[in-house]
């Protein structure tokens, strides 16, 4: 199984790595893992920013990391949907999510699967890109698991609660506490990686943990109780497609065809098309049962859902609101120095509106 840790904090690692790449001259392509060859091949294909992407000789390079919603790109690719829409796409798999961020910011890939919250910091760094599509948002794939005797958020007062500072789970915890007139000072907060928090919870060393899949299901299966999940917080954790501005400028038609292809794939996924799901499982190295279980934890976004989330609004249903709240969280945890002036400027619904 291809697994991932989804963390806002790893963005800082990616940005530092990018700075190192800038000082390494010809060695800038080393160290990135991909599924379809080394990153030098991806760099070669993206070297000429002015050349149109999405052709057979110059395919669009899409960086993909392991996550249940993003796995659907394997179905789009391997059932021939891209080619049916007249665009050629190479999926470059990055087992380490931060490696994909580094590749995107340094121009080694044309587009990337990125959590919306991770799109905030690079705006301050001057990275020029647009978020053109929402693939999914978490719908139960992230949650708070507790020991017996804890039956409400208020019951967490004075209890030991663990998750990793700077992650989406940390943001989730702070939001839930705030909604219940509490702060992190009301609990005994322990900064612990998700990989450590899960086993610590199972061992009984902590009272509660904020976890993501598959660690969340493992903790529940070991006797933990799910107290609260992202099913109650729709839109809090959206996963998106971002494209470099230079590629949008040179290859807008190809980007449109890629967005069209996503929506075609979503139709097959929602219909539980056997060939499409098998292509996903083959690409992601998952059994069908495992993938279908993971799929239950996300809401896949079709055209209608995308049109709605790109509108302006005042709750987590709307992408612009989610970005703003993510920026406030990052600032409060000192992971960015300032909130970008206009985060909505990185949102571009042109291709959603243009989809057939």
UniProtKB/TrEMBL annotation:
It comes from the Bacteria. Residues 41-54 have a biased composition (Basic and acidic residues). Keywords: Signal. Residues 59-266 form the Solute-binding protein family 3/N-terminal domain. One of its GO terms (cellular component) is periplasmic space. It is found in: Periplasm. Residues 32-54 are annotated as: Disordered. Residues 1-21 form the signal peptide. It holds the Pfam family NMT1. Belongs to the bacterial solute-binding protein SsuA/TauA family. This is ABC transporter, substrate-binding protein, aliphatic sulfonates family. It comes from Roseburia intestinalis L1-82. The lineage of its organism: Bacteria, Bacillati, Bacillota, Clostridia, Lachnospirales.
């Amino acid at each position: 199984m291809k697994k991932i840790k989804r963390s806002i904090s790893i963005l800082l690692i990616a940005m530092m790595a990018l700075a190192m790449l800038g000082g390494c001259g010809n060695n800038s392509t080393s160290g990135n893992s991909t599924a379809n060859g080394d990153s030098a091949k991806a760099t070669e294909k993206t070297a000429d920013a002015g050349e149109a992407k999405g052709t057979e000789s110059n395919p669009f390079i899409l960086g993909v990391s392991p996550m249940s919603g993003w796995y659907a790109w394997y179905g789009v690719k391997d059932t021939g949907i891209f080619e049916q829409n007249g665009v050629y796409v190479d999926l470059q798999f990055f087992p380490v999510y931060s490696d994909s961020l580094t590749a995107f910011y340094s121009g080694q890939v044309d587009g990337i699967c990125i959590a919306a919250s991770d799109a905030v910091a690079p705006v301050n760094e001057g990275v020029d890109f647009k978020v053109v599509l929402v693939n999914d948002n978490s719908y139960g794939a992230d949650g708070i698991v507790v020991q017996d005797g804890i039956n409400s958020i208020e019951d967490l007062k004075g209890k030991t609660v663990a998750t990793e500072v700077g992650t989406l789970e940390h943001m989730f915890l702070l939001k839930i506490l705030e909604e219940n007139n509490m702060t992190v000072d009301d609990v005994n907060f322990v900064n612990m990686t998700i990989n450590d928090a899960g086993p610590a919870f199972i061992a009984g060393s902590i009272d509660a943990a904020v976890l993501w899949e598959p660690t969340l299901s493992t903790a529940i299966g070991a006797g933990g109780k799910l107290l609260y999940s992202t099913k109650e917080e729709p839109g809090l954790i959206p996963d998106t497609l971002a494209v470099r501005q230079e590629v949008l400028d040179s290859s807008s038609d190809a980007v449109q065809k890629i967005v069209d292809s996503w929506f075609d794939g979503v139709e097959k996924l929602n219909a539980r098309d056997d060939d499409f799901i098998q292509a996903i499982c083959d690409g992601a190295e998952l059994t069908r049962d495992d993938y279908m279980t993971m799929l239950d934890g996300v809401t896949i976004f079709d055209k209608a859902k995308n049109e709605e989330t790109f509108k302006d609004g005042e709750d987590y249903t709307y992408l612009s609101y989610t970005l703003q709240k993510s920026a406030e969280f990052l600032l409060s945890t000192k992971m960015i120095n300032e909130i970008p002036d206009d985060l909505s400027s990185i949102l571009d619904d042109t291709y959603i509106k243009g989809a057939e």
